[in-house]
Amino acid sequence: MNNQWGRSGNGQTSGGGGIGAILFAVVVSLALGGAGGYGAFRIMDGAAPAGEIEARDQRIADLAKELDARSAQVEENSQKAQALTEENGTLKRQLDSLKSNTSASDGALAVAENARLTREVIPKLENDLELAAQRVADAEALKKRADEAVLDRERRLSLQADQIARLEKALDQARDTRNTTQSAETERLEAEADTLRRELKEAQNAEEQLRAKEIPILQEGIATKEREVATLNARNQALTARIEALEAAAAAAKPDGQKDGGTKPALDNAKPATDGRSPRNAALVAAAVRVMPGLDRLTGDQRDQLERTLVSGECVTTALGGVFKHIPALAMRNLMRDLDSGC
After folding, report:
1. I want to staple 29 with a disulfide (CB 3.0 to 4.6 A). Which of 93, 160, 257, 285 is the partner?
2. For 288, which DSSP code?
3. CA dihedral (30, 32, 36, 38) positive or negative
4. Higher pLDDT pick, 209 / 6
5. Are 125 and 94 spatial neighbours (Cβ–Cβ below 8 Å)?
């Protein structure tokens, strides 16, 4: 499975290490912020409030939760991209199958099959294509939010470094104004400053590691994701062109009677009931209608109407025209054969 930056499962270890390094940098930055605030308060007041440490710990916990949520969002982005790739493969296979089906030329059967493809398969493929395009847009939006999260972490680290600089400036001012009674406090502040410098150095090392190792990996993942999006867009354009070509081929394969506004085929529609034709056997008509192609498109009332019309001796094409807007060629051929009708 691809991870959040489009890398294969073989790269999961480095990806996990990248998130760990980021988390470490964030936590260290928060610790620096807490320690810096503590030192500044002690300089001004001489004693730290009891609630300050709790507020710092709560802020660290809140940012850790936010980092977990953003990591989950990046993982969801990867899964959506994988699902989109698989769906495009399915669309390609369906179009290949559709192309092979439209090459059949079995007279009326081929015309009916092309009509079915135009009516049922192609609209579904167009709908799937629209969904795929929407999912590409969603994947791009998620990638953009992941980029913003990386920039936000860098901004927070910079703010913590500025806070440490302000604390060191306050410590320098305290040294300038210290006297004999302040020597113990100054020594304590110097020890805290040394600790802050050490922690700042560790944070800077973590940032350098992030810039040297993790950010190139993230940039590579973003580039891979952008290439995947471009590939998917190209495939979508190709699929759209093939759908339009298949629709044109299906329309060209229709009989002349169906090309002009979907009118019924120009067949003999004269009613035989006026020329002495005998009514048909009801059981024979029911059996023929039961196996007729396209029966599932009729309601119960339409099926009863069709059977009554055929039993009365009506022409097959006329009876079908009473319940279908466009007479299915395959159904007409089968009924004429099963009922031994000449029209």
Report:
1. 160
2. H
3. positive
4. 209
5. yes
pLDDT at 31: 52
Question: Which residues are CB-contacts of 242 (< 8 A; sequence separation ≥ 6)?
Answer: 95, 99
Q: Assign residue 52 a region: left if phi > 0, alpha if psi is -120 to 50, beta otherwise?
A: alpha
User: Using one digit for the tens of pLDDT, what is the confidence trace for 91-134?
Assistant: 878 877 776 665 544 556 667 777 777 777 788 777 877 887 78
Give the CA count within 13 Å in the CB-facing half-sphere of 335.
Answer: 29
Estimate the crossing angle of helix 215-252 against helix 108-116, to 10 degrees: 140
- For the entire predicted model, the pTM comes to 0.23
Specify whether the CB–CB gap between 264 and 321 falls below 8 A: yes
Query: Of 268, 289, 249, 265, whose CA–CA distance to 113 is shortest?
Result: 249
Cβ partners under 8 Å of residue 118, min gap 6: 247, 250, 251
pLDDT at 53: 73
- Rounded CA gap, 15 and 146, in Å? 14
The C-alpha atoms of residue 284 and residue 309 are separated, in whole angstroms, by: 13
| Range from 92-101, 131-140, 302-311 that averages highest in pLDDT | 302-311
Q: Return the domain boundaries, the chain.
A: 13-252, 260-338
Q: How many CB atoms lie within 10 A of CB 302?
A: 14
